[in-house]
Amino acid sequence: MSLPADDFLTDDALRAEVAQARSTALMVGGGGLALLLVMGLIWPQPAASSYLVAYLFWTGISLGCLGLTLLHHLVGGQWGLPLRRPLEAGASVIVPMAVLFLPVVLGMSKLYPWTAPELARELGAKATYYLNPTSFLERAAFYFAAWIALALLANYWSRLQDGTESPAPSRRLQFIAGPAIVVLFLTVSFAAIDWAMSLEPRWASTIYGPMVIVGDVLATMALMILTTVSLSRSREIREVATPSRLADLGNLLLAFTMLWAYMSFSQFLIIWSGNLAEETPWYLRRTAGGWQWVALLLILAQFFLPFLVLLFRDNKRDPKTLKVVASLVLLMHLVDLTWLVIPAFPGASGPAIPWGQLPMILVAMAGVGGIWLAAYLWRLASAPLVPLRDPHLLIALQHTGGH
């Protein structure tokens, strides 16, 4: 007989806090979605675009969790010891996120201009062969089928390993991890094209999908650091979240910060230097009407500030400093997605920042995020916080004496 989910949390106070946080998140999520629905009846397009920002944010984190889970199964390393179960829990939330994709489907006509027949004729047969509602939905169904299958396999075999001395489950995961990462990379890249880049169908960038993926992984690493530090009162996490492993997590956060900056700047440099009339307007819309200050904020707070702080070894070994930096990175990821999505919908005032939409974006974040966090905490509490018999982790611990 399976144990109740919370029985795996050995600290009574922590167990009570997780249960309370789960209930609160569920109430906030339900209330936020209900309020956004009311807003959507009054302001359909701003509500739809706000929901899309929130949906991309939380779905991207689930996919980032899945990607990092597969990466750890492929390459191993002690950095995954405190993260494996939080990553698996986050990856499994892709199942409810598939259900939450329904509002995007219902709001297609408010979000994607290629659904209008007149624009479809303007784009031509080649573009409309790809950008049409039927193909859009078929591809989305394929994406979710692939993601859910990979997430369920990763969770099932990982938890199966907890109950057996045989290394077979871990070996299966290592065997499929490489091909699975390729599938994940391709599907997430095309999903980014479908769900975000096609908001402006006259514009295209070959680096857009990988750039979005790196941003999602960066935000995922930030959230996993926050989870690890927050759960450090638990004996299981406290024993594995040593200063050296926290430094490893800080190094990964630094690496993904640099990679995000490199890819974002590469896209800008290529498009701006090319100076093509069909490409530069994308950046012109995002560097006018106040959006230029958002772009500057991203440069400073999404790259330079985390980069400078994480250069120092002591900062990466300090939980409080890591928590502050991770919180900043997570906030800036929301700003980044807002900067990518919202300028595609210029209002009556042109490309100016629609400040009145900011509360709607926050409501959408609370609604989708509340559901995501409730499912995440439930899955996190449904298994031991640290993998019990993973042979790769056991070997790594033997090499370092558990430190």
What brief labels describe this structure?
single chain; 403 residues; mainly alpha; 19 helices; disordered N terminus
What does this structure look like?
With 403 residues, the protein is an all-alpha fold. The chain has one domain (23-110, 138-384). Helix content is 76%, strand content 0%. It is globular.
What level of helicity do the residues show?
Answer: over 70%
Beta content comes to under 5%
Label the structural class. Answer: mainly alpha
> Which word captures the global form?
globular
Average pLDDT metric: 89
The main pleated sheet reads as:
none
Radius of gyration: 21 Å
How many helices? The count is 19
Distance between the termini: 35 Å
* Spans where pLDDT lies below 50 across 5 or more residues: 1-7
Instruction: Summarize the helix and strand pattern as letters.
Output: HHHHHHHHHHHHHHHHHHH
Compute the number of structural domains.
1
Number of strands: 0
Write the layout of secondary structure elements.
Layout: H1 12-42, H2 44-75, H3 84-92, H4 94-99, H5 102-106, H6 108-111, H7 117-123, H8 125-130, H9 133-162, H10 168-195, H11 208-230, H12 235-240, H13 243-274, H14 280-285, H15 291-310, H16 313-317, H17 319-341, H18 358-380, H19 391-400
Helix pairs in contact: 1-2, 1-18, 2-3, 2-9, 2-10, 2-11, 2-17, 2-18, 3-9, 3-18, 9-10, 10-11, 11-13, 11-17, 13-15, 15-17
Summarize the model shown.
The chain has 19 helices and no strands.
